[in-house]
């Protein structure tokens, strides 16, 4: 096999939701790339203009030029021609968390460390061609037109970018009817070098996991996005209005999520919080790329909350959406999905956060908001198919769009969480001991006269099992839509621990295993927890209730 043949990739199917288009023979272990940027308290941006921005009046600090489209053309030559003999530089925004000295990490005007740094890379960037006007001895103003949209010419770049456009971009877009990440972002990426590097880095990582490219290719694109982020951080426009930077963070977090829990450092999640949460009152109603990035970013945080059973780490109380009574008209269906995203985050904060004085009242308020949300949904959120299958324990449920599926996934999961932690008729205690729920329905078949067991069986069946089955059916009915199941797998795994039927348990475990095999989405943690929980449920559960077996 020649060197070029070893990097040949299979072009994904035109149908972005075709699992067959992304499945590969490789069962590559989910391992973290050697370099993932971290964030400090200040995150900076890049606009790809090839120039540094004019400093505000009175500010006398020089900026290094930002990489231009020409820079990126040089930097983006095929990885087959680039020597990958050095690690990328350590960005300055990593130093706080790594406890490193900034010596050797300061970038020059090309996004590479100053000459002599032990962390230098072998990627050259010709200096951007710009017109310079000296305003003062300490201030330089650069004037340049936005770079034209470029065209990719390297075969490997084209194939990797195609995977993003036809696959990964659609998976990120599950909550956005406007389709920003698979339609607008690729076009913007051809003008924004950093955003293009993020698309290629994410796509190459996912392709590597599927055995579609070699490690050298994936490492090259990862190194490139890190090197381009360094000059981006010298900009003074790192804020919530920088759409290209927000999209870059969301895309890199998407790639980072394909790591098992113990390997996921969450650098693009935790580190970017200050970028998104800078006081901006994000609205679920506005339709633009920045708003879409924010809600996608929140959805990316929900998976960690469920895997660790911890509240959302971000302070969202400043959002006016908190007072939303669900009666405000929505321009698009995506608004309703964003509303439910915010609601499940609030439910998670209540159930997994520190004890609250008025927790019971808040749980009732959240339960009311869930039902108001459902009552005011537009007709488009109605399923076009609901049917039972004798050979499947879960119903077949279909909706017209992925954002409908995502919203209902969150709705059913939130219902289960409130029923487990704050059941309606047991306000004085939480019934989250899953072991007594899992087996209670089996035992009540033989102890019909014991009313406490019958009461708990009713809670178990109607408030926990029923929505869990709907959630599982909803996900399994949309097996060809990768994005919705990336969003739903951790929800199913958490709620699925309360399933008691052996066939239900087998079906859920097989689904998660098969989905992970086909997409390389990590599910080992979820599957292990399910097996352990179901195994423990076989122990005598009546001890949990303080009931004598001899009654």
Automatic annotation (TrEMBL):
* Entry's localization field: Nucleus
Gene Ontology molecular-function annotations: DNA-binding transcription factor activity; transcription cis-regulatory region binding
Taxonomically, the superkingdom here is Eukaryota
Q: What UniProt keywords apply to this chain's record, in alphabetical order?
A: Nucleus
The UniProt entry's GO biological process terms, in alphabetical order, are: positive regulation of transcription by RNA polymerase II
Residue ranges for the region (Disordered) are 1-74
By its UniProt entry, which InterPro entries does this protein fall under? Answer: Fun_TF
Polar residues composition bias: residue spans: 9-18, 51-63
Major location category of this protein? nucleus
A Pfam family cross-referenced in the UniProt record is: Fungal_trans_2
- GO cellular-component term (any): nucleus
Q: What is this protein called?
A: Transcription factor domain-containing protein
Source species, please? Aspergillus turcosus
